[in-house]
Structures are given as C-alpha cells and as structure tokens.
Design a protein that fits this description.
The chain has four helices and five strands. By secondary structure, the chain is of the alpha/beta class. Strands 1-2-3-4-5 form a five-stranded mixed beta sheet, sandwiched between helices.
Length: 146
C-alpha cells in the first residue's frame, strides 16, 4: 500500500496524488503529514486532490478519510481558499460525494475530470486572492517539499 503523495513545492497550491491502493494506516499518515505541513506553512492555500489513480474506497476507508478531512478542515478552514478534486471515474466521483455527505467542506470545492482543469481552477482561486504559485511542479509528481 502507499499513502497519498503530498506535493507542497507549489505552495500555496498543495497537490495530493491519491494512490490506487491504500489502507487505514496510509490515510492516518497522510492526514498527519498534511497537519504537519499546515503547522510549518502559514497563509491561505488551495488543494488539488488528484484521484486519477484512485479506486472506490470501502466504507471503513471512506469513514477514515472523512474523519481526516474534518480534522484538517477544523485546523485550516480560515486559510482554505478551496479544494479541487480530479476524478475521471464516475466511481471515484461517487466516493467523493459519499465522503462529502459525512464531511461537507465549508469552502469552495469542485470535481473536475482532469488535472489540468483542476489546476486551472486552483490557480484562479489563488489569483483572486492576490497570490502566486511556483509553476515548476504543478504537473509532475514528487515528494513533499516544504
């Protein structure tokens, strides 16, 4: 299994690449890593969650993901300019909808079929707030960079 890949080198745009396979520990570790990032970085942010490789989560993983989203939202709601989800699959879009039934985001969110569309939406949110991002890493995978 693999936890989601967190790319922060494009701050204030944070990209999360959701893997095809993960378990409860991967989800816990991901949200801990995201919480650590929020402790280190200050200011507003936009998140793009790329679920291109994701598969439908079983109910326990959906619940743990919803709990993680709720905890992160409580920490960052005043800083969050929005979240864009990449979900080319109807099944994954269904999973996102199910998670939002449990943990509805109190900030703008959108689901897009492709990563470029999600990144365009995220950049527009940042520009509207007068913020700029590092463009070099918005389309490539990589480890967390703080």
């Amino acid at each position: 299994m693999a936890r989601p890949n967190l790319i922060a080198s494009t701050w204030p745009l944070v990209i999360v690449e959701w893997p095809a396979e993960l378990d409860v520990h991967d989800i816990r570790d991901h949200f801990a890593e995201l919480a650590d990032l929020l402790d280190v970085r200050r200011g507003p942010l936009v998140v793009v969650v790329d679920g291109t490789e994701a598969r439908m989560l079983h109910s326990t993983l959906r619940m743990r993901t919803a709990e993680g989203i709720s905890a992160i939202t409580a920490r960052a709601v005043s800083r969050m300019l929005g979240v864009a989800y990449v979900a080319p699959s109807v099944v994954v879009r269904g999973a996102i909808t199910a998670i939002h039934w449990v943990a509805r985001p109190p900030f703008p969110s959108i689901t897009m079929p492709t990563r470029p569309e999600a990144l365009d939406w995220a950049r527009a949110r940042l520009r509207a707030a007068g913020l700029e991002i590092a463009e070099a890493r918005t389309s490539a995978s990589g480890p967390v960079s703080r």
